[in-house]
Amino acid sequence: MAGGCRRVFGTALGVLFVVLVLAGGAAAWGWNHYQRVADGPAWTGEPTSVRIERGDGLRTVVARLREAGVAAGHDLEGRMLARQIAAAGRLKVGESALEPGIPPRELLRRRRDGRVIHYRVTIVEGWNIRQLRAALAAAEPLRHETGDLDDAALMAALGHPGQHPEGRFLPETYLYQRGDSDLDILRRAYAAMEQALAEAWANRAPDTPLRSPEEALILASIVEKETGQAHERPQIAGVFSRRLRRGMLLQTDPTVIYGMGSAYDGNIRKRDLTTDTPYNTYTRPGLPPTPIAMPGRAALQAAVNPAPGDALFFVSRNDGTHVFSATYAEHAAAVDCWQRRRNCPARNGAEPQQ
Description:
47% of the residues lie in helices and 7% in strands. It has a two-stranded antiparallel ribbon with strand order 1-2. A two-stranded antiparallel ribbon has the order 3-4. The longest helix has 38 residues, at 2-39. It folds into three domains: 43-117, Dna Ligase, domain 1; 119-198, no CATH class; 206-338, no CATH class. 29% of the residues are buried. It has helices at 2-39, 58-67, 75-84, 104-112, 129-138, 151-157, 182-202, 213-226, 233-246, 253-260, 270-274, 297-304, 328-338; strands at 48-52, 94-98, 119-122, 173-176, 313-316, 322-325.
């Protein structure tokens, strides 16, 4: 009897040993298979991308990857990998690049860390609203929601009904993801301009003739259009501030051009300067009714902190810089020299080249 028990016990031990060996082998095989899936090349095709939508869970993410042709393993392996790298419940929405040889572990790690594909769109200093809208319409893969909206409807869609759109969007480079819309960009650019304008106004010179942030925005847009030279912006702003303070006409061509709209053909003539529009600062005193362009941060700062001095006039040297004059006689001489190419005093080679 004892011998039989020993035989049964020995057989059981043998079976248990075999089971343990097989289980260990299966576990080792399973672990090695999991490691091969996790660290093997998930994508071997041409570079492309896959997008994860808001609300997608891990199972959906894995399914989307498999639909895209990624060797992402089964759901169990995906869940194991997500838990191992602490990605479960933390996968970010967006578009991920699929590069040849990228393993699922790295792909999920990038989704966990929010490393998604970003695109860029730039609002250029001095653009008007037409140029801005054209640039957004051409941006890809930006989703376009404003194509059928006029300017009034656009501002209403942004939550600012009745406001003129000119000058309201801060020139900067904005990053966006696939699925974002032009309204998303405009909301961000509007908020950025509001903040930049508030900061500039809070730091304005105590003797500024400007009475509100709105007037600061308008003057900044004129400064932006009058010069592309950063060092000249405070000087240009100084001329206009002194003119406003004295009740002089601003007489700035960019406002006239803006008022001409599509009639402007690249040339400004005497009749254009005498034709009255709300934007003609040769015929109307003070600032125009709205900004005429999108001013950058430097123009905003210049408008509220103009350079001191006594200049009331300036004329272009035709190289992007200007000659500033305190009296009309000096200004007339500068115009004669730099615009009519005559009667230029020879001083240090400063006269225009013929």
